[in-house]
Amino acid sequence: MLREGKQIFVAIAACILCLLLTATGSFAFYVTNTARNNTISVGENVTEIEEVFQPPEFMEKGKDYTKKVTVRNRGSVPCYVRVFAEAVDPGMSDALEIDWNRTEWTDKQKDGYYYYKEPLPVGAVTAPLFTTLHAAAELENFRMIVYSESIQAEGASAPQEAFGEQ
C-alpha cells in the first residue's frame, strides 16, 4: 500500500510540474508579446506622355517638323515604360521618315511597342523616342497615335520581361 501511495504521489507531482512549466511558458509569451502597427504602402506607377509638337495643317515635302515624345514618371516607384507610336493613316507611314532613338529605346517589337531600355526613376523623364518627322511627300491632316504604358520595375531585369513579352 505504501508503494502505491508513493507512485500516486510521484504521478501527481509530475502532473503539477508539467502544468507549472506550461503555465510559465505561456505567461512568458504573453508578457513579452507587444503589439505593433504594420505600415504597408503600395507603390504606384503613373506615367505621362510629354510631347512637343505643333501639328501643321499641311506637311510640305522635304521639310522637317519637330515632334519630341518623352514619358515622365509621376509615380512613387521606378518603372519600365513602353510606347506605341504610329500614324493613324497607314498610307502616311511610307511618306514619313522618323528619327527613332535606337540608343535608349528598342526598335519596334512584334507587339508594336518601343521599350525604354532602363527603369525610369521617380520624377525622371525618358530620352525622346524621336524628335523629328521628315515629310518625304506632301501630307494633309497628319495625325499620329502616341500611347504609353508602364509597369513597376522591381522584380524584372528587362522591360520586355516586366511586361511579359519575352
Short description:
Helix content is 23%, strand content 29%. With 166 residues, it is of the alpha+beta class. The longest helix is centred in the N-terminal third of the chain and has 31 residues, at 2-32.
Structure, described:
The protein is α+β, with helices and mostly antiparallel strands and 166 residues long. The protein has a domain of 116 residues: Immunoglobulin-like (Sandwich). Helices cover 23% and strands 29% of the residues. The protein has 3 helices and 9 strands, in the order H-E-E-E-E-H-E-E-E-E-E-H. The strands form 3 sheets. A 4-stranded antiparallel β-sheet has the order 1-3-7-5, with no helix packed on it. The radius of gyration is 34 Å and the shape is rod-shaped.
> Mean pLDDT, rounded to whole units?
87
* Proportion of residues in β-strands: 25-35%
Please work out how many helical segments DSSP would assign: 3
User: pLDDT below 50 for ≥5 consecutive residues: which ranges?
Assistant: none
Radius of gyration: 34 Å
Helix content: 10-25%
Name the strands of the widest sheet in spatial order: 1-3-7-5
List how many beta strands DSSP finds. Answer: 9
CATH class of the domain at 47-162: Mainly Beta
Largest pleated sheet? 4 strands, antiparallel
Helix/strand/pairing class, anyone? alpha+beta
Shape: rod-shaped
Terminal CA distance reads 83 Å
Keywords:
single chain, 166 residues, alpha+beta, Immunoglobulin-like, 4-stranded antiparallel beta sheet, 3 helices, 9 strands, rod-shaped, signal, Alternate signal-mediated exported protein, CPF_0494 family
